[in-house]
Design goal:
alpha+beta, 35% helix, globular
Amino acid sequence: MSEPFSLQPLRPEHATAVLAFERENRAYFAAFVPDRGDAFFADFDAHFTQLLAFQAAGEDYPHVLLTPHGDVAGRVNLYRVTPERSAELGYRIAQHAAGRGLATAAVREICHVAATAYALTALTARVTDDNPASRAVLERNAFRPTTPLTLNHKPATAFHRPLP
């Protein structure tokens, strides 16, 4: 990563910074994925509490990318963990941090964490065809396209990566 960011599991003390991150980047993210909607922001505390509950149950592993000042520069999540120990990968990087290799480095790190800390055996991801930057992040991290699909009413591709 071009700056000293740290990937950390989501913790209760991240709530304020995560909400700020989501608010500041709402329009930027909406260009790539459906907007979370006003209800997400109005009910953010309940949503955040649910993320922590899923994490405690081992169903999801949400993470934040923090700057040295404690600001959230991105989110990297492993979710829908299966009994076979695979999970889906999702990530979003703040607009101000995009294009500097942060997503590639964060995905590389989460793949290592997924295998070593969570004993996951494979990751999947989905990306719309109109998001070549996200596709490149996956390909640089040994994810391989598997099947075409429709995501958010757009043509998309599913990706897969076995973990060591």
